Amino acid sequence: MSGNKSALDLARLLGVAQDAVDIALNELWPARNQFVHGHPAHPKGDRDFVTEVDLRIQKRVHQYLNSTTPHIGFLGEESVTEAADPLQNDLVWTLDPIDGTSNFSHGLMLCSVSLALLHYGEPVVGITAAKSLDLRYHATKDGGAFRNGMPIRVSETTQLNSSLVSTGDYAVGQDASEKNWQRIALTTALIGKVERIRMFGAATLDLAFVAEGSTDACIMLSNKPWDTAAGVLLAREAGALVTDANGTAHSYSSTATIAAAPGISAELLALVRSAFAK
Question: Are 80 and 203 in the same domain?
Answer without folding.
Answer: no
